[in-house]
């Protein structure tokens, strides 16, 4: 397993799908120019709508979505592995899937992952979110094989459910992706801690591209895209503005971390209280 360079594309997406696609394509090209062979974009790459209803109105089924052919063509042109962190894909008249799509270097879809855990919360700041009202939660953990090893796909709020990451790591994933649109409120408190914990407890690299800043609809996201090593070191971090960050990944470091602390082999069954 040879080392490779990965990149996080940080965005500040709006409700203008065409503009979001244009900006994302340009930043993916920038990431390739910095030598990245695996590039990941955030949750809600193509659409940050004012609310779930507006997002539903502007969404398409997978065959009709205007962004996917553009990303497919660029992955093939640049010869990269490209993870579009999430796109709202219409799956019924009332629901979308919050779907990660992984493109291979020929532009084919290598994997799809629908976000399992729905962000339904009332924050102390007064922010209220009800993702489940317009999003159908997924029901399947997903891995995909890259030339350098296996990657496990997750999205944003999933990071608060460590058993999902445990299952991905025990299925052979040495790298975990967490594309996000984390709120500014929860990001300041928990973003770094949770992502470093997921890396450490699984002996895995974590690649977490994020939305950042104040969006056109007034929503504030935390930014600070991160690339974290299996021992918990932060290899690269963004601020709050759209940008590209890169880091070199040596898959052997995952094996080393798991040998030093072999907790993935030490799970035992137990009775719950």
Description:
There is one protein chain. The protein is α/β, with parallel strands linked by helices and 273 residues long. The protein has one domain: Nitrilase/N-carbamoyl-D-aminoacid amidohydrolase, CATH 3.60.110.10. It is built from six helices and 16 strands. Strand 14 (226-228) and strand 15 (234-237) form a beta hairpin. Helix 1 (17-33) packs parallel to helix 3 (67-78). The longest helix has 19 residues, at 184-202. It is globular, with a radius of gyration of 17 Å. It starts with a strand and ends in a 13-residue tail after the last helix.
Describe how the helices and strands are arranged:
Layout: E1 4-10, H1 17-33, E2 38-40, H2 52-57, H3 67-78, E3 81-90, E4 96-103, E5 109-114, E6 120-122, E7 128-130, E8 142-146, E9 149-153, H4 162-170, E10 173-177, H5 184-202, E11 205-208, E12 212-214, E13 220-222, E14 226-228, E15 234-237, E16 243-249, H6 252-260
Parallel strand pairs: 1-2, 2-3, 9-10, 10-11
Antiparallel strand pairs: 1-16, 3-4, 4-5, 6-7, 8-9, 11-14, 12-13, 14-15
| CATH fold description | Nitrilase/N-carbamoyl-D-aminoacid amidohydrolase
* Oligomeric state, counting identical vs distinct chains: single chain
Query: What's the CATH H-level homologous superfamily?
Result: Carbon-nitrogen hydrolase
Largest sheet: 6 strands, mixed
SS content category: alpha/beta
**What is the N-to-C order of secondary-structure elements (H for helix, E for strand)?**
EHEHHEEEEEEEHEHEEEEEEH
**Care to count the β-strands?**
16
CATH class reads Alpha Beta
Number of helices: 6
Report low-confidence residues grouped into runs of 5 or more: none
The total number of structural domains is 1
Percentage of residues assigned to helices: 25-40%
Task: Give the rounded overall mean pLDDT.
Answer: 96
From the 3D coordinates, which CATH architecture would you assign? 4-Layer Sandwich
């Amino acid at each position: 397993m040879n080392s490779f360079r990965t990149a996080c594309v940080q965005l500040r997406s709006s409700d203008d799908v065409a503009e979001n696609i244009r900006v994302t394509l340009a930043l993916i090209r920038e990431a390739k120019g910095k030598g990245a062979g695996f590039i990941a974009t955030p949750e809600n790459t193509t659409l940050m709508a004012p609310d779930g209803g507006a997002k539903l109105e502007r969404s398409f089924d997978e065959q009709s979505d205007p962004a996917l052919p553009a990303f497919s063509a660029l992955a093939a042109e640049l010869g990269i592995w490209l993870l579009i962190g999430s796109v709202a894909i219409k799956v019924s008249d009332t629901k979308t899937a919050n779907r990660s799509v992984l493109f291979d270097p020929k532009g084919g879809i290598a994997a799809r992952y629908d976000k399992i855990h729905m962000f339904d919360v009332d924050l102390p700041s007064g922010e209220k979110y009800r993702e489940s009202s317009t999003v159908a939660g997924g029901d399947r953990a997903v891995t995909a094989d890259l030339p350098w090893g296996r990657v496990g796909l997750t999205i944003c709020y999933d990071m608060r459910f460590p058993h999902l990451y445990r299952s991905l790591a025990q299925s052979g994933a040495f790298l975990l992706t967490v594309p996000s649109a984390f709120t500014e409120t929860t990001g300041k408190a928990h973003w770094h801690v949770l992502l470093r914990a997921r890396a450490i407890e699984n002996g895995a690299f974590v690649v977490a591209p994020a939305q950042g800043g104040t969006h056109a609809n007034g929503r504030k996201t935390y930014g600070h895209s991160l690339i974290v090593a299996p021992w918990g070191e932060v290899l690269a971090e963004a601020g709050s503005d759209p940008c590209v960050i890169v880091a070199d990944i040596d898959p052997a470091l995952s094996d080393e971390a798991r040998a030093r602390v072999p907790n993935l082999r030490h799970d035992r069954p137990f009775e719950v209280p």
